[in-house]
Amino acid sequence: MGGGSVLVIALLVAALGWLHRRTRDLPDAGWGARVWVQLTFGLYLGWVCVATCANVALALVGSGVPAAGALATVLTLVVLLVVLAVFAVTAGRLLTHRWSVLAVAAAIAWGLGWAAFARYAGELRSIPVTWVAALVALLVLVLAALRSVRLSRPATR
Fold first, then answer.
1. Whole-model pTM?
2. Secondary structure, 3-state, 24-37
3. Which stretches are transmembrane (predicted)?
4. Quick check: 157 pLDDT over 50?
5. How does DSSP assign 80-147, residue by residue?
6. For residues 124 and 67, is the Cβ–Cβ distance under 8 A?
7. What is the pLDDT of residues 44-74, one digit of tens each?
8. If we measure between CA atoms, which residue out of 20, 15, 6 comes closest to residue 53?
9. In Å, how far are 6, 27, 78, 99, 125 from 18, measured between CA atoms?
């Protein structure tokens, strides 16, 4: 996996973000539209965000960065914090339907939960990465809940 694959998956994230931006001002067309557009593409966007981070990690290892050790741990922690920042910006500016926010958050938290488990029980065991991945997953869910509550309230003028 190299820089080309990182570029392709980053473009996929951008395309899904663009899709959400284009559909955010459409009127609510009922439960079917929420499921097929907001929920489905929200899950996809969240999953691709986590997959992008995994792809970056693979590209770094492929370019010679060791998969274990202090440098790998620091870079992984930075990537996890980038996931949190990307979600915060995306949920705050791009996602205007609570179903989208919740779907993106669920997919990201699920992916980070698996990353935390893998770093706890897998070959590349790292307790700091385990805890930070779990904490970022929790923070994503908290931010999503707060944004969802805000979006469910009627707009005041």
1. 0.85
2. CCCCCCCHHHHHHH
3. 6-23, 35-61, 67-87, 99-117, 129-149
4. no
5. HHHHHHHHHHIIIII--SHHHHHHHHHHHHHHHHHHHHHHHHSSS--HHHHHHHHHHHHHHHHHHHHH
6. yes
7. 889 988 888 888 888 888 888 888 889 889 9
8. 6
9. 18, 17, 25, 17, 36
The two structure tokens encoding residue 78: 């930075």
Count of CB atoms within 10 A of residue 27's CB?
6
Q: Is the model's pLDDT at 1 over the cut of 70? A: no
Amino acid identity of 55?
N
Q: Which two tokens stand for residue 142?
A: 């908290």
Q: Which two tokens stand for residue 114?
A: 């698996």
- Tracing tokens 């996890």 back to the chain, one arrives at 80
What single letter denotes the amino acid at residue 119? R
Q: Rounded to an integer, what distance in angstroms lies between the CA atom of residue 112 and that of residue 129?
A: 10
